[in-house]
Design brief:
about 210 residues; mainly alpha; two-stranded parallel ribbon; two-stranded antiparallel sheet; 9 helices; membrane; Spore_YtaF; Sporulation protein; transmembrane helix; Mntp/YtaF
């Protein structure tokens, strides 16, 4: 069961990266090996930090409180991810939308990862990969915090999350180049991957409560 939880956390952390990779593939934006490695290293660092903080909390908090907090955090993040993935009607005029995108937030990058290519060069450079890595690793922190509260191995979680990040971005770019325009119901492939990421977190949260 422990390894299933570790894999579940890794998959949940990585599906946003898959969505980003698909978005880049569709737009023919290249993600080089070095840039992908930088994103994976940031994911590892964020995940490790979250786990260590979670482990510290689990030692300080009494009884089953760490498990309850872990489940609550995962449920909140899982629901937020699911809501972010649900398509919404665009009510903002295109001109205003372009102005707003100039100051892109982490949330904006998660929803529109192609905006990380600031110089419109058609590839994600080293500096751009740092910004993208931070945006994509936000989930790794909260996942790591929950994993730490559950007492899971920091190294195992962080390594699988980093490996998953590297692999899913690479696979996503390849898929995106071949299946541009493919949709699953009202979802794009990237949105569907994000939706599954949130659902997995909700499943892990429920499992930790009833285990």
């Amino acid at each position: 069961m422990t390894w299933l939880l570790i894999v579940g956390f890794a998959v949940s952390s990585s599906l946003d990266n898959l969505g980003a990779g698909i978005s880049y593939g569709i737009r023919r934006i290249r993600v080089g090996v070095l840039s992908n490695l930088i994103i994976a290293m940031i994911c590892f660092t964020f995940s490790e930090s979250g786990i260590l903080f979670g482990q510290w909390l689990s030692e300080v908090l009494p009884g089953i409180l760490p498990v309850l907090i872990s489940a609550f955090v995962m449920m909140v993040i899982g629901l937020r991810i699911v809501l972010l993935a649900i398509p919404r009607k665009q009510s903002t005029p295109p001109e205003e939308k372009e102005d707003q995108s100039d100051a892109s937030s982490l949330k904006d990058l998660l929803q529109h990862p192609e905006k990380a290519d600031k110089d419109k060069s058609g590839s994600i450079g080293v500096g751009e990969s740092v910004v993208l890595g931070i945006a994509l690793s936000a989930n790794a922190v909260t996942n790591g915090l929950s994993a730490g509260l559950m007492g899971l191995s920091p190294l195992a979680i962080s390594l699988t999350a980093a490996q998953g990040s590297f692999i899913t971005i690479w696979i996503g770019v390849v898929i995106g180049r071949k299946v541009a325009g493919v949709r699953i119901g009202s979802f794009t492939l990237g949105q569907f991957g994000t939706l599954i990421s949130g659902v997995i977190l909700l499943m892990i949260a429920c499992n930790s409560l009833f285990d």
